[in-house]
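Re: duplicated header lines in exported structure tokens

Our pipeline writes sequence and tokens for each protein into one text file. With two proteins the header for the second block appears twice in some exports. Here is an export where it did not happen, for reference. First protein block:
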Amino acid sequence: MNNIERIRQALPKYKCSAMLVSGAADRLFATGFASSAGALLVSEHDAWFFVDSRYVEAAESVLTDTNVLLITKDDTFTDRINAVLKDNSITSVGFDDGAVTHASYLNWAKKFEAELVPAQSLIDVLRSVKSRGDLEKMIKAQRISEKAFEEVLPLISTNVTEKELAAEFLYRALKNGADDKAFDPIFVSGAKSSMPHGVPGDVKVSEGFLTIDFGVRVDGWCSDTTRTLCIGKPDEEMIRIYDIVLRAQAAGIKAVRAGVSGLDVDAAARTVIEDAGYGEYFGHGFGHSLGLEVHESLKASQLSEDFLPAGAVISAEPGIYLPGRYGVRIEDVLYVTEDGSENITKLPKDLIVI
């Protein structure tokens, strides 16, 4: 069953007779076709892809089982949509409201001759479960990013800047087969490592911890990994904190399985950090889902209301951050199974000292 058929089967639950998919990642999920513009309409019996002249030929070659309709200045998106709605007696249209601007919604509400039904969760629920084929693409992205990371390791010293290392990672990731970065890589050292999403600067790498958070895209699918290294000899507290984070990650990973709540997974890891006396220094969640976006809808955090389905892919990334001093984060990616999880990250987690 392809993803358009999965969307079609979900329509009755959301009380709409069609689903309009317009967000870039949602479109890619539904069709497998990557473009910077376009929209897919799925009804109970048919599907239409609306696109302008930049992509129409490519869309027709890929979407062989979908009606591809050209949008022009004289035959606009709303014109085309309304014609299809009328011809197919479609009276209610779900849409991915998480990807639609307020301005677009107001325009659609004014012009579409059908009721608009917010239905982002229809797409999110389907996207939360990855097929084995999806996972293989994510594993490919993971291996490419790991290879780039390993190639950057010998370049790390206090004679290079954080920004230079980030640039080297991007170059080597693309050279090794990545299509793009999944996000801007994080290379932050010394006191800056206490900032979970610090930005690499034009400053030489400092002694102390160096946090490296990196990911790439392959066929639209993302990888995401964090490793914390030490430049120079770590002191006893640094070694202890690294070990606490590693044990917290292991506890969280052990708690992962289909049906468990994201709240409980987070608690398993958080308890280790709290019991060690560093609870106030772990501010973010244990993990987030990823796939066609590096942050998707499922979460394993203190605020999570999610239960993890089999086939979900989530990060495992606890951390401890001492403001103005340093921070430690260790991140792997897990594929959730009925009785546990499969860790698709293969980099070692022993503290690397340079």
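Second protein block, exported in the same file:
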Amino acid sequence: MRVGRALVIAGALAFLTCRRTPRVKVHALFDLPRMHSTHSLSGTAFDPATRTLFAIPDKDPMIVPLVANADFTAFTVGTPLPLTGRVDTAWDGEGLVRADGGFIAVTQETVPLVERFDATGKRTGAITLPAHFAMQAPPGNKGMESLTISPSGRFLYTANENALVMDGSPSTKTRGTIVRILKRELATNKDIELAYRTEPLGAGGATGDMGVADLAAVDDDVLLVLERGFQPDYGNTVRIFRVDLRTGTHVEGAPALSDATPVLTKTLIVDIGTLPPGSASHPGPEPNPILENYEALALGPTLADRSRLLFVTSDDNASATQVPRVLVLAVSGL
């Protein structure tokens, strides 16, 4: 390893060690009305100019505007924007970002496919991802769930939900799954990949899954990672971590990852299952009624007390035992 590179990594690690753990509190918990447009929301992007949280469902090619009230404690469901002009009729909308006045979305998880749309919802092109991201273990529905863009607009980021077939196994009770976080420089199409390991399944049933559900970019090098797990008859486990990509080892040239592959250092921001539930209720089994199948993460505005809002949105799978929900967290010290 070059000395300069070692010093950069050492400096970044020292910086992370000195950071205080961010403080998190529940700003609001809002259950959306049960309707066709609020079911199965899997990705979000926030527009500060209009206080709108745009959401993409995995069942229909459209974008659903959720317009926040003045203090971000409630949302009004707007008229969905149909996504038109697509070449491929298959659809599995997962991740969403705002870019250049329009949208970029993960529109198929398994292929995987990332497409661009203008402000009217018309398709304007696609972004090609490295071919190995299609090498997903059966049944193949653990691919690209996440999408975010840096505030500068320079970089796009995504990650596979569970390990690719050549990189390892899904999470177990004692070991997390290893995935690849992709950092794409949009102007040059230059890619960087870094290895990230999720938490194990932990408490709950004997079976289930744990994976990366979404990402949110704090700046060009720092991401928030939403880890979401589910275990039958137990419910969900949802945590948000902070990672500095400068602490990672590049793996874009690695044909396979293993337990020996260095992974990104991560800092726990919040375990949602430990938050006070307040008046939250849930129709299904959950270790804490504030929990849900949270799949979408988006950074919101900074408040007067300098805390940053973070929107965490659920995919209710159009199920009567789940809830279409937006959890709004106020985070200090990001």
